[in-house]
């Protein structure tokens, strides 16, 4: 396959997630320094805010206020114009485990995934939900039965949501209903059946891919960060891999398309996703390369 040249945009972080291109900068959450950052294409970094309970997914309300998934206390936070953080919604009663990545639609509705189980504590794998949070903070479950819902994407017409299931060996999609609900789940891509097991090691060993974050492009393909394969792949609907970028010793856990023409692919890289390892060694970095097809949809 085509060999693309990779460069480092920023480095020295613990574990980066939630990459978003917004207002001419790349935004990201660094889990274990508990901060949201924004970096321009010259590598100049600004610390946007501290999130003591660990930031992950990012998005923006129509009025420009930033939403942040605060993982450990399972709250969706809202950054006000003065820089203060307010609780937009408390999702602890609707989720099983840390909240994680999300996508925010044009109306300001946030669709938030969660772990479903204690990943770092070694608990049995459990399927879980997606919660929709409306602009007024009202929250309700709109999908269930997902295996670690992670990076989520809304098509340019606003009618379909695509969701990576990191430990489910598949990517799912839903119709977005007029009231903001989600229709029945269906496969966007299925990479093979998994054994009937709640053991994470068994599921990972049987998986062809661990879809984490990603980015949707204008041809309807998805760049998928493979959390178990030390690579990022461009996937067509149905599951055919169109391109693969290998990253050697580093795994890729999130991605975004951006830059002035939408053709810069940004990737969050780290040696692994184990909390104890990442807290101890600030080795995470943002890689970037140029691709042929620009960004589309949300985020």
UniProtKB/TrEMBL annotation:
Which residues belong to any copy of the SMP-30/Gluconolactonase/LRE-like region domain?
17-270
Domain of life where this protein originates: Bacteria
Q: Which InterPro entries match?
A: 6-blade_b-propeller_TolB-like (IPR011042), SGL (IPR013658), SMP-30 (IPR005511), SMP-30/CGR1_Lactonase (IPR051262)
| One Pfam family here | SGL
SUPFAM superfamilies found in the cross-reference section? Calcium-dependent phosphotriesterase
Kindly provide the name given to this protein in its UniProt entry: SMP-30/gluconolactonase/LRE family protein
> What species is this protein from?
Achromobacter veterisilvae
């Amino acid at each position: 396959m085509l060999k693309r040249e990779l460069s480092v945009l920023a480095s020295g972080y613990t574990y980066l997630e939630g990459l978003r291109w917004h207002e001419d900068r790349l935004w990201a959450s660094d889990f274990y320094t508990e901060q949201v950052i924004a970096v321009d294409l010259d590598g100049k970094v600004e610390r946007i805010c501290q999130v003591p309970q660990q930031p992950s997914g990012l998005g923006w309300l129509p009025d420009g206020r930033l939403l942040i998934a605060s993982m450990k206390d399972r709250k969706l936070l809202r950054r006000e114009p003065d820089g203060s953080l307010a609780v937009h919604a408390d999702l602890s009663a609707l989720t099983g485990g840390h909240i994680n990545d999300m996508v925010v639609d044009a109306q300001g509705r946030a669709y938030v995934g969660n772990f479903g189980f204690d990943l770092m504590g070694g608990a049995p794998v459990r399927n879980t939900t997606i919660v929709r949070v409306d602009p007024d903070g009202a929250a309700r479950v709109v999908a269930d039965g997902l295996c670690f819902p992670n990076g989520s994407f809304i098509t340019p017409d606003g009618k379909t949501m695509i969701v990576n299931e990191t430990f489910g060996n598949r990517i799912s999609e839903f119709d977005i209903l007029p009231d903001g609900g989600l229709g029945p789940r269906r496969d966007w891509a299925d990479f093979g059946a998994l054994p009937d097991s709640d053991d994470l090691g068994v599921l990972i060993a049987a998986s062809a891919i661990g879809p984490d974050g990603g980015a949707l492009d204008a041809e309807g393909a998805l760049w998928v960060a493979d959390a178990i394969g030390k690579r990022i792949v461009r996937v067509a609907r149905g599951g055919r891999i169109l391109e693969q970028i290998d990253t050697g010793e580093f795994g890729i856990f999130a991605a975004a398309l951006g830059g002035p023409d939408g053709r810069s692919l940004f990737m969050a890289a780290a040696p692994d996703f184990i909390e104890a390892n990442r807290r101890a060694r600030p080795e995470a970095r943002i890689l970037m390369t140029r691709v042929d097809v620009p960004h589309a949809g949300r985020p």
